[in-house]
Design a protein that fits this description.
The chain starts with a helix and ends in a 9-residue tail after the last helix. The chain has one domain (3-89): Orthogonal Bundle (Arc Repressor Mutant, subunit A). A hairpin with a 2-residue loop joins strand 1 and strand 2 (64-69). It has helices spanning 3-10, 13-24, 29-35, 40-52, 71-82, and strands spanning 56-61, 64-69. Strands 1-2 form a two-stranded antiparallel sheet. The longest helix has 13 residues, at 40-52. Helices cover 57% and strands 13% of the residues. It is of the alpha+beta class.
Length: 91
Amino acid sequence: MKMNEIFKALSDPTRRKILELLKERDMTPSEILEKIKIAQPTLSHHLDILKRAGLVDYERDGKFLKYSLNMGVFEMALEYLMKFFKKGGKK
């Protein structure tokens, strides 16, 4: 997991909105589209970036995919950022 991919994924407001929605509950792409008014191909692109960054996971639920947050990656990114707030920026 590269931090650059995580921060790139987090830099886009639409992707941050998707993450906010998934914080509330796991969702299918159709459910996400009901909340965010974007085209389906655009959503697929954003979800792909979030998946490559490791920020979301998905599993098949019948014929649908259900997306969820990968909290482990968020925790890793938070730990990475927290080291900058420690004295002298060292661990």
